[in-house]
Amino acid sequence: MHDTTPTSLPRRRLLTGGATAVATAGLAGLHGQALAQAAAAPAAAKPLPGYAGWKNADAVVVHSSTTIETKRSAFGTSVVTPTNQLYVRNNLPTPADTIVADRDAWQLQVSGVKQPRTVSLRELKTMGLETVTMVLQCSGNGRGFFPSKPSGTPWTVGAAGCVTWSGVPVRDVVQALGGLMDGVPYMTGTGGEVLPAGIDPKTVIVERSVPVAAMQDAILAWELNGEPIPLAHGGPLRLIVPGYTGVNNIKYIKQLAFTPKESDARIMSHGYRITPPGGKGDPSQPSVQEMSVKSWINSPVPEDGAQAAGTVQIHGVAFGGLHGIKGVEVSLDGGKTWRAARLVGPDMGKYAWRQFVLQATLPKGKHVLASRATDDRGNVQPETRGENQSGYNNTSWADHAVTITVA
Amino acid sequence: MHDTTPTSLPRRRLLTGGATAVATAGLAGLHGQALAQAAAAPAAAKPLPGYAGWKNADAVVVHSSTTIETKRSAFGTSVVTPTNQLYVRNNLPTPADTIVADRDAWQLQVSGVKQPRTVSLRELKTMGLETVTMVLQCSGNGRGFFPSKPSGTPWTVGAAGCVTWSGVPVRDVVQALGGLMDGVPYMTGTGGEVLPAGIDPKTVIVERSVPVAAMQDAILAWELNGEPIPLAHGGPLRLIVPGYTGVNNIKYIKQLAFTPKESDARIMSHGYRITPPGGKGDPSQPSVQEMSVKSWINSPVPEDGAQAAGTVQIHGVAFGGLHGIKGVEVSLDGGKTWRAARLVGPDMGKYAWRQFVLQATLPKGKHVLASRATDDRGNVQPETRGENQSGYNNTSWADHAVTITVA
Question: What cofactor is this protein dependent on (chains A, B) (predicted)?
């Protein structure tokens, strides 16, 4: 599959457990699930880009140098998504790794507070500490299920992960800087990517505004899943806005501004808008911000190949965006009838996903398996997607159903 | 530090974010914390053994080819310990990686049930699914603080981690095999390591018994932190007994037996016993099994170098073994006075550790920082260790205190 990839160390660990396994890695690749996955893999899998060369090549699909998706069959059942298989979606080329050479020296400019100034990451670490586990999901996750084939990466389910961030609460930083100015209904973050020359910066800069209320649970994070945030995921410093889609979680954050208006950067004013099919984005349309209730099945999936008849543990993930999960139902007949699934594993808070499992006995034949989540406010995952030009916010349970074969 | 280690990919990720960073890795190594750690590192750090060559060399101390410790300064604040920095302690040489080439074909022999038989991992996966997060801790963690210098690895705090396992509940397997036989007060697991030739197997085999009541929350696990269990950590199948020290969580498990008596293997009958100082282990002494309430500070620690005067976020971890954590206190004066710390981050259940943080302002000078945890039964972490010949079960808060310098 990825034998040409020079950085396949994680793959060898996954399958054979050690870096000494070079000699047997080829053999291991012919066994078990790996065989089924190889059969299902596209003929010409792209290699991992250099800045993400440490990812587990077997667990991801490389769409392009800036878009990498977790395979549906790779999610496992451990709640937290390992960083080495977490999706990547960068709006601009990844900055040079010199920016993570001296992490504590990173500078953040804070404005819209009573004592605006530049704060180093070293100082941020003295201001407070919080840890939050949350679903990080690209706005376009599920785009691949839109029959209209919107432009953009055709993600299925794998532009998402449940990960743990540590950093300082934004509210602690605001307090240390004298509190908010009056009349600032927006929190605006600006990424530190180097912008291409000769282009109006506003047309390319990554700058997003969210309602200032989102500050309550937002953190400026320096740690992801127990390690300093890798460059690929926005290190040394990333704005984390739990419950909001990926683009609102600004990587390499250089400016945090509390502002009277939304940013006029194109990625805010025209990009990431819920635009009617055939239309163009404009500031009057809803911005893609909060996530809503969604679930999908991770096993069994067609990528695993034909299933043996008998008992199966159907499992997947469910999350509610800003709300916790109340329950999940699973259908074995494409949505005609539903059974209550069991939530398993630790509950890591309302922004994290829950794992669900339903034990079932499946006879030979084809089966359409679907899942449908309900959040703690009673919102039920819908059957159909909300059509929009760019394929955002697909939460349709029907789109996320899987057809499996029991032999 | 580890420039001679051929498998330093994770280190480069940690510091510079990408596998393309070879050219700058040397430079990065001279900055910030890395510099302080380099100064504190032993002159001749051992390289990672091949089966664990994928570990983050910068985050661990290699004591020997079978004993690898997480650095106190590397724990971070994300609750779950990343697998690439989780400690390793193997009682026997690691099996050949051929045993993880076809994981689902692994066979487990189950006895002491009404329908004893051999079950494949493939079949175990159909029997049930549960996920548990727990502290995995070597029985000898903290041995390095015993002034008596017991034989064995002188672990300080890093022979422990908080990790997530997925697998089938042991009770589901027992139920599928007809239920327990009568008169079996012990659950006995046997590891699948290849034993050295010419030696009585009972003197070296890894076989441990725990009270059958521990079955209630035990699982037979195939996944660790979202990936198939690496060989270094007991893959393809490991018995997980939450709340019990590491040795009771049998790697490469080949036999699960419900037995009328404890195993007579030497590691059970004479090893891992609470033996009076100067004595020899025997079956009449308490076996090292359940963990009890313990905590320690991970930052600031001397390895981080001198601290700047001013505000500091003192943080660490606390766990209760079989019980959850009720609270943690921190002392800035070596235990004379205590302040209540704040628990932060997700609560992953009673077997996991909690993170605690105390914000404090430290003037110039030396400070002895200590932490003291209380579990939800009201058990308080003791000041002193329980002396024993082999240096097991050190929970002393005084031993785990750190002396830091504020400049």
Answer: Mo-molybdopterin
How far apart are the C-alpha atoms of A402 and B4, rounded to whole Å? 48
**How many CB atoms are closer than 10 A to CB B231?**
25
Q: B226–A10: do the CB atoms touch at under 8 Å?
A: no
* Contact flag B13-A132 (C-beta cutoff 8 Å): no
> Is A124 part of the contact surface with chain B (CB cutoff 8 Å)?
no
Chain B (165-194) residues lying within 8 Å, Cβ to Cβ, of chain A: 165-166
B352 touches chain A (CB under 8 A): yes
Determine the Cα–Cα distance for residues B221 and B237; give it in Å rounded to an integer.
6
CA dihedral A302, A304, A305, A307 (to 10 degrees): -100
**Alpha helices (runs of H) in B165-234, residue ranges in sequence order:** 170-176
What are the φ/ψ torsions at residue B319 (nearest 5 degrees)? -150, 160
Over residues A198-235, the pLDDT tens digits come to 999 999 999 999 999 999 999 999 999 999 999 999 99
A23 at interface of B, judged by CB pairs closer than 8 A: no
Tens place of pLDDT for every residue, chain B, 407 residues?
Answer: 233 323 233 333 333 333 333 333 332 322 333 333 333 444 568 999 999 999 999 999 999 999 999 999 999 999 999 999 999 999 999 999 999 999 999 999 999 999 999 999 999 999 999 999 999 999 999 999 999 999 999 999 999 999 999 999 999 999 999 999 999 999 999 999 999 999 999 999 999 999 999 999 999 999 999 999 999 999 999 999 999 999 999 999 999 999 999 999 999 999 999 999 999 999 999 999 999 999 999 999 999 888 899 999 999 999 999 999 999 999 999 999 999 999 999 999 999 999 999 999 999 999 999 999 999 999 999 999 999 999 999 999 999 999 999 99
The domains located in chain B, with CATH, are: 9-64 (no CATH), 97-269 (3.90.420.10), 294-406 (2.60.40.650)
CB contact under 8 A, A16 and B352: no
Nearest residue in B to A121, CA atom = B32
Q: Which of B9, B162, B164, B227 to mutate to test the interface with A (most CBs of A within 10 A)?
A: B227
Identify which of A382, A168, A397, A203 has the alpha carbon closest to the alpha carbon of residue A297.
Answer: A397
Residue A211's alpha-carbon distances to A238, A261, A263, A365, in angstroms, are 18, 10, 12, 50
- Asked if A93 has any chain B CB less than 8 Å from its own CB, the reply is no
Q: How far apart are the first and last CA of chain B?
A: 25
Nearest CB to A101; choose among B24, B97, B346: B24
Which chain B residue lies closest to A12 (C-alpha atoms)? B54
Q: What is the pLDDT of residues B96-108, one digit of tens each?
A: 999 999 999 999 9
This model of the complex carries an ipTM of 0.89
d(CA B302, CA A254): 31
A50 touches chain B (CB under 8 A): yes
Which residue in chain A is spatially nearest to B134 when comparing CA positions? A346
Residues B53, A19: C-beta atoms closer than 8 Å: yes
> Rounded to an integer, what distance in angstroms lies between the CA atom of residue A94 and that of residue A84?
17
Chains A, B: CB contacts under 8 A, how many? 244
Q: What is the pLDDT of residues B2-51, one digit of tens each?
A: 333 232 333 333 333 333 333 333 323 223 333 333 334 445 689 999 99
Say how far apart CA A330 and CA A343 lie, in whole Å. Answer: 12
Q: What is the largest CA-CA distance in chain A?
A: 68
Closest CB to B235 among A17, A82, A126? A17
